[in-house]
Amino acid sequence: MRGPTVTFCFDHFGKFPSAFKLSHLLLIVLFLLHAAASFPALLQCANIEIVSPAECRRDYSGVVSDNMLCAGVREGGIDSCQGDSGGPLVCGGILQGIVSWGLEECAQPNKPGVYTKVSKYISWIQQTVRRG
């Protein structure tokens, strides 16, 4: 591995820490808003909020499954974008989501980013790591 690394914990119970429930998450990505012509020298971070599953399903006409979670800023302007897939969504030092998908035009109002819900895959992650 080259360059600095950051370590996050997994949530073994599949729940947000109570102090952070429906609150702020930290998104760490290369791009925010719109894809840039070149990679920035530093990772970009943004504080965003959890969007309820019901709101997210409504925003995306039911396409969002239980294996996904949504987060963003309702009024738009802050979002992950093309090139950010695989980036971490962290709450209280615990990895909660992985940047998955969104609209082609990033950071639109009422269109939060969609993330893979890590808690749904903890067993698979543990089995895969054990196998080496």
TrEMBL record:
<comment type="similarity">
    <text>Belongs to the peptidase S1 family. Snake venom subfamily.</text>
</comment>
<dbReference type="GO" id="GO:0004252">
    <property type="term" value="F:serine-type endopeptidase activity"/>
</dbReference>
<keyword id="KW-1015">Disulfide bond</keyword>
<dbReference type="GO" id="GO:0005615">
    <property type="term" value="C:extracellular space"/>
</dbReference>
<keyword id="KW-0378">Hydrolase</keyword>
<dbReference type="Pfam" id="PF00089">
    <property type="entry name" value="Trypsin"/>
</dbReference>
<dbReference type="InterPro" id="IPR001254">
    <property type="entry name" value="Trypsin_dom"/>
</dbReference>
<dbReference type="InterPro" id="IPR050127">
    <property type="entry name" value="Serine_Proteases_S1"/>
</dbReference>
<protein>
    <recommendedName>
        <fullName>Peptidase S1 domain-containing protein</fullName>
    </recommendedName>
</protein>
<feature type="domain" description="Peptidase S1">
    <location>
        <begin position="1"/>
        <end position="130"/>
    </location>
</feature>
<keyword id="KW-0645">Protease</keyword>
<dbReference type="GO" id="GO:0006508">
    <property type="term" value="P:proteolysis"/>
</dbReference>
<dbReference type="InterPro" id="IPR009003">
    <property type="entry name" value="Peptidase_S1_PA"/>
</dbReference>
<dbReference type="InterPro" id="IPR043504">
    <property type="entry name" value="Peptidase_S1_PA_chymotrypsin"/>
</dbReference>
<dbReference type="InterPro" id="IPR033116">
    <property type="entry name" value="TRYPSIN_SER"/>
</dbReference>
<keyword id="KW-0720">Serine protease</keyword>
